Amino acid sequence: MQPPKYFHIGAIASLVVLILWLLAWEIVVAPLRPGSWILSLKVLPLLIPLGGVIKRDIYTLQWSSMVILLYFTEGVVRAWSDKLEVSRMMAMGEIVLVFIYFACALLYLRPYKKAAKKMAKELLEKVNSTKSTK
């Protein structure tokens, strides 16, 4: 069973938009200090899984759905603690984009996880039936 294509498209789109969102936030919209771009380097870890997500690599989608939670944490902390209203709004946007990616990745992976569980169960039954016949 193939997972719906829109979950894959949603994962790609939300990841790309998140990268652009974070760059805009730290370079243009609300940098910590005027002219400061150093925090924009936080997008580099998001570039690592991008190719695998585009290629529908199951393993990449699995580990990136866990790594993305670091960005959720950053968004929550900055939405709570940043002084500038625009920065808090950008943090809330980060939270939403991370949530969309996480949900799309998990929903895309769901059929694969079910198939893997079914295969493992069948293998276990086969092993157990061979043991009982000996």
From TrEMBL:
TM segment ranges: 7-25, 37-54, 61-80, 86-109
InterPro entries tied to this protein: DUF2069_membrane
Q: Which residues form the signal peptide?
A: none
Keyword DNA-binding among UniProt keywords: no
State the UniProt keywords alphabetically.
Membrane, Transmembrane, Transmembrane helix
Q: Which Pfam families match?
A: DUF2069
Presence of the UniProt keyword ATP-binding in the record: no
Q: What is this protein called?
A: DUF2069 domain-containing protein
